[in-house]
Here is the input.
Amino acid sequence: MITVSGVSLQFGSRKLFEDVNLKFNKGNCYGVIGANGAGKSTFMKILSGEIEPNKGEVIIPKNERLSVLEQNQEKYNDCTAVRTVLLGHKRLVEIMDEQEMYYAKGDLTDEEGEKLAYLTQEFMDMNGWEAESEAQALLNSLDVPSDLHYELMANIDSKIKVKILLAQALFSNPDNLILDEPTNNLDVKTIRWLENFILNFENTVIIVSHNRHFLNKVCTNICDIDYGKINMFVGNYDFWYESSQLMLRQMKDQNKKAEQRAKELQEFIARFSANASKSRQATSRKKELERLTIEDLKPSSRKYPYIDFKFEGRIGNDILMVKNLSKEGLFSNISFTLHKDEKVALISQNSSVVKALCDILAGVDKDYTGEVIWGKTITPTYLPQDNNEFFEDYDGNLVQWISQFTKETEASFLRGWLGRMLFSGEEAEKSAKVLSGGEKVRCMLARMMLIGGNFLIMDEPTNHLDLESITALNKGMERFDGNMIFATHDEEIISTVANRIIRINSTIEYDKNISYEDYLIEQEGK
Here is the structure.
């Protein structure tokens, strides 16, 4: 168990946390969420002891062990993979090293013999004789090849290092486990394994993650960082999101009613306070007005763009037919037909294959053989993974940039669209060349909405987006009434949007009208 008591942290004039009081109990998994810059990773460092708060304390019982997912991949370059995992239990490794020192020494004094006996007993109490085999078993579970177990970390690929550092954090059943973005750079199989590990873990887990599917699977509680406070809610991410939106709507409605009643009372008092026959009623209304409190509804610091893909006209029965499509060096003889209401998730081990297929469908790439036949009523719009060509050579600001994609010329109309995507006021005057990756994606989404196509093609649309923008995009994709083909690493989007899965590498390996969850179950059974 971890207890946070009166914790405050301030950098200069900026207050990051103020008087935070929380308890993280055994058997629960806590997801820490917050807007970019809210202090999620900083809070995790406070919990781990890496950062000292200005006020308050973090209390961990002395007999409990805390394990933290290491972020620095180069830290253990001079260690083997197995020793790196063992270092997840530092005291155990200290004992092992001390024992080795005494064994190498040979003849021991009585005092040294007693010390070795004490160390051996402590080693046995920690189940030390099984430690190395436990470390290897963890590595095997995470698909780290056995021939790398005793290889130096310096010689191991970064994608494998991530798994080894995860094994280090999970090693030897820690009492408290802190994981900052544990699913980054993990494949789907490993993420599934980690989900099951946490679901069966009996101690305390605290997680920061942008993977909503993962948070929904493992979290029993959500800790929401906003305005320097951390509020804890029971439930997973989706439950928190829907509850928080409902609470916000209810508070707004409540305030509107209170404001309307206050207005009516003020008007009555103004009209009749000087009228002797109405003075008693006016006094009564005045007292009611004094009792009427309008809650201080402080809007969340989170900002959600409004993403809603609309199109005009009706969609015919012919959507898309792909016949014997081939692209040299990537894939050959790809054929499929899309029907009404289908939303297809593309799954591939090769991102170049997905990019090439999406480019061909969007008409960007003409260098292929085969046929792409669109229905007469279909208007495709494309969100490519690489959008630099839309911005790097453009000299205007965002108002001018977005005007390229609509016949409307009114500044208020253009600014309204930018406002929907969180570019309000002076932000709309920003040069298109200086945008961040996330800002560019939001602009591209605004472009898609303005074009109003009834078929969406999206290649990794969540790249560079924050959790709030990803959530808004997810909702927009769910609401969309047309067809779409998309590829994304965001499993929550695949799970909630796709009703057909196509797995493609050099050829189509799988094509079925199926939910993502059923697809995963089907694959696990093979």
The mean pLDDT is 89. The CA atoms of residues 100 and 193 lie 35 Å apart.
